[in-house]
Amino acid sequence: MNYIGSKLKLSNFIKNTIYSVVGENLSNKVFCDLFAGTGIIGRKFKQEVKQIISNDFEYYSYVLNKNYIENHLPIKNKLSFIAELNKLQPLEGFIYRNYCKSGSGKRQYFSDQNGKKIDAIRMKIESWKDMNKIDDPLYFFLLTSLLESTDKVANTASVYGAYLKHLKKSAQKELILIPAEFEFNNQKNKVFNLDSNELINKIEGDILYLDPPYNARQYGANYHLLNTIALYDNFVPKGITGLREYNKSKYCSKNFVQNEFDELIKNAKFQYIFLSYNNEGLMSLNDVKKIMGKYGKYNFVSINYQRFKADKDINRNHLATKTEEYLHILQKT
Known about the structure:
Elements: H1 11-22, E1 30-33, H2 40-45, E2 51-55, H3 59-70, H4 78-86, H5 94-99, H6 112-130, H7 136-152, H8 169-172, E3 190-192, H9 196-199, E4 205-210, H10 219-222, H11 224-231, H12 257-267, E5 270-278, H13 285-293, E6 296-306, E7 322-332
Parallel strand pairs: 1-2, 1-4, 2-3, 4-5
Antiparallel strand pairs: 5-7, 6-7
Helix pairs in contact: 3-7, 3-11, 6-7, 12-13
């Protein structure tokens, strides 16, 4: 998925740094990805550690990680369910009415046909769940498949804060459900949908990886439509962009972020803590060093990185600038 702050391209840098600090044999370690997003880092360590704990405040992220992190055993006949969903007749439901041009909302996040397909698929998945035709592992596999396939035909400049006036080429393609395949193993991982500072008091482990928001842009606003498809609840969309009520993170506030971060580090029952942050964040390098340094042996490494770039067809060159990505390291005492 196109995702602001994705660590996909940085994942090898992060993994190798963790190896250099903790050691390469992590088979007896509990690894926590506390701000998981699309779950890239948790997935990178899924086959390497004893257990993954994954968390994110956004429900769409919870869905993705329930599939990629918590699902770990083969699901019988899952592709036959995908095939059946792909054959459904389109229906005029909540997404079509509120997020397509011909709907009452007049918004153009999706083509009319794709909006109707999203509705038909989403309603069928929920009806299967209500009839106990599918269990939780299959439910979250199918939902993840829908979210990722939907994202590929969204008529946006990669985030859902706004839609484009005209359907771009990728948004004109027909929505086809692609299976969101996950890795198998014998782990029993845990996935949460909680505030990170609340959850940190309830868990413990060996390695804590942190990738909180860097700036004032709220993920709940940027990806509100993914939450809407994942939850598929009834509400009145607000404004031109059809926003829903969304979670507002204190990590996106200059007034609150340092205190929130300090509390998190203080309460973390993990020996090794790694924080991804960059030189454009609300907290400066010295802010992070001062807070983490209070709780043990602190260090950091950095890498130059081309940060998130919006859709290449859209003139957003200012999003393609270089930034310096820091990986802060704390061995807690």
